[in-house]
Every structure is written in structure tokens, then in C-alpha cells.
Design goal:
By secondary structure, this protein is of the alpha/beta class. The chain is about 25% helix and about 15% strand. It has 5 helices and 8 strands, in the order H-E-E-E-H-E-E-E-H-H-E-H-E. The strands form 3 sheets. A 4-stranded parallel beta sheet has the order 3-4-7-8, with no helix packed on it. Strands 1-2 form a two-stranded antiparallel sheet. The protein starts with a helix and ends in a 19-residue tail after the last strand.
């Protein structure tokens, strides 16, 4: 499988000509695959359980303390950390109006804001990446959030610039690869 090949191979990329990349897999130089490359999405954005749930730490430890992507996979492309809801004013193929109503109901109108996640991350010494919403949030909005987090003393171990934005559903934000 591809995952197996990637786990035993070292790769190099060298440009052949402008706009192209050549990938070489060297099979005689095996390298271990970092556990952080196959962590867990925190798709809790769709669930009534959030990071302030008392039993979460026990369950997280029981499954081996995997690397976590916050706020998850696809939802991260629409997550608004100020409201704790999904931005629903995008011309994408995603529709989060009903999900936002559900989140407002289960949180008594508060939304799923990120503060409990960062508290959980600090208390559990969590290995995680912060997945920025680059589909419905601007560069300036993401920069302001990262600046706020830094001023609050959060040490973000890794940052991802969006989640799988190459799919057609994100054409509204990234019509061509060069926009990314």
C-alpha cells in the first residue's frame, strides 16, 4: 500500500521545470513514519461532548493519547473560534445552518468555543495541531486569533493551513492551486 511505501521510504522532490515537481522514492533508506501523521481528528464539533466533559481525559488516555487535530478535519474549514459555530455564509457545498442550531441548543446559546480545548490541551500535555479556517476566515482574522492565543500564553505546537482544500467543495475559496 501507499502508506507502507511511505513508511519505508525517504522522498525527495526536485523541480524538472518551472511548475513541475519530480518525486523520488528511495526504497533502500527506510524511515519510520511519525505517529503525528496519523492522529485523530476532533470531530467533536458535531457532538454534544466537548473538551470540558469530565470523562474525556480518561477516555483520551485509554486510547493511547493520539495526536489531535483541532478543530478537526472538514469542519475546521468553516469553524469560527469567536462564535464556536460554523460560518454558514460561504458559497461552498457545505451547509451548516442546521448544525449551528443544534450546537446552540446543546450549549444553551454559547457555541463550542475553543477555550475548553486549550485548557484540556494544557492539562493533558496534548500533542496537537491547530487547523486554521482558510475558507471562510481571512488571513487577518486568523492572524488576530493566533496573536490572541499567543498573548494568552498558548504555545501552539503545529499549525495546519486549512484541511484538504483541494477538493471541489472549496472551489469558492481556492479556484486554483495558486490561490492557496
Amino acid at each position: 500500500t501507499l502508506a507502507f511505501l511511505l513508511s519505508i521510504a525517504s522522498t525527495t522532490a526536485a523541480p524538472d521545470s518551472p511548475g513541475s515537481v519530480r518525486l523520488e522514492i528511495v526504497l533502500d533508506d527506510p524511515q519510520p513514519l511519525s505517529q503525528d501523521l496519523y492522529g485523530a481528528n476532533t470531530e467533536a464539533l458535531h457532538m454534544p461532548v466537548w473538551f470540558d466533559e469530565p470523562a474525556l481525559a480518561e477516555k483520551y488516555n485509554a486510547i493511547g493519547r493520539p495526536f489531535v487535530r483541532f478543530p478537526g478535519g472538514t469542519p475546521s474549514n468553516f469553524y469560527n473560534p469567536q462564535t464556536g459555530l460554523f460560518d454558514n455564509d460561504s458559497p461552498s457545498t457545505r451547509e451548516y445552518g442546521d448544525q449551528n442550531k443544534k450546537l446552540l441548543k446543546i450549549t444553551q446559546g454559547a457555541g463550542l468555543t475553543p477555550e475548553p480545548f486549550f485548557k484540556f490541551a494544557r492539562e493533558q500535555k496534548l500533542r496537537y495541531s491547530l487547523v486554521l479556517n482558510v475558507c471562510t476566515r481571512s488571513f487577518e482574522e486568523n492572524q488576530a486569533w493566533l496573536t490572541k492565543l499567543a498573548k494568552e500564553g498558548h504555545k501552539i505546537p503545529a499549525i495546519e493551513i486549512g484541511n484538504e482544500v483541494f477538493y471541489g467543495g472549496y472551489h469558492c475559496a481556492f479556484p486554483k492551486a495558486t490561490y492557496y
